[in-house]
Amino acid sequence: MHYVVNIEVFLAKAFNFASTDDMDDIASFDGAVPPHFYGVMAKTEIGCQVLAEKGHFPEFAHFIRQHGLESEDPDLILRLKSILWAVGNIGATEGGLPFLEEEEIIPHIMQIAEQSLVLSVRGTCFFVLGLISSTAQ
Questions:
Q1: Please, are residues 68 and 87 in contact by the beta-carbon 8 Å criterion?
Q2: pTM of the entire structure?
Q3: In the predicted structure, residue 42 carries a pLDDT above the cut 90
Q4: Cβ count near 118 (within 10 Å)
Q5: 35/65 Cα distance (integer angstroms)
């Protein structure tokens, strides 16, 4: 969940050019999101094997389906965004994309991006879909 907080602070700085103190941070932004544990794991064959064996991805997909349109509970919303970032970073790798395809989760992320009442969740989905679309597949 720290990843969500860090990336949202970073994006807020990148989109609010008012503070000159933050200009060094913004100038160093190359358009890439910070590395994510699951994204780094999914880059290797052994990491994908561990991910499959542990069963984390089906749990992520189930949570997204169950709580994707949550708009009341801040804890669930934070967890949803955290899981969306994990899924996006997994899907941004060649070895990770089959996990998304197997769970057929991309249409659910698109639905959340279109229908969520929480703008930060919509924004997270937008960035996550961008990560997923960065793969050749």
A1: no
A2: 0.84
A3: yes
A4: 17
A5: 25
| Residue where the block lists tokens 């932004």 | 29
Contact 109, 64 (CB under 8 A): yes
pLDDT in tens, 56-92: 999 999 999 999 999 999 999 999 999 999 999 999 9
What element of type H or E holds 130?
Answer: helix 119-132
pLDDT at 23 over 60: no
Mean pLDDT of 12-20: 66
Residues 6+ apart with CB under 8 A from 122: 112, 113, 114, 116
The residues, ordered by sequence, that sit 6+ positions from 8 with a Cβ below 8 Å of its Cβ are 120
Contact 33, 127 (CB under 8 A): yes
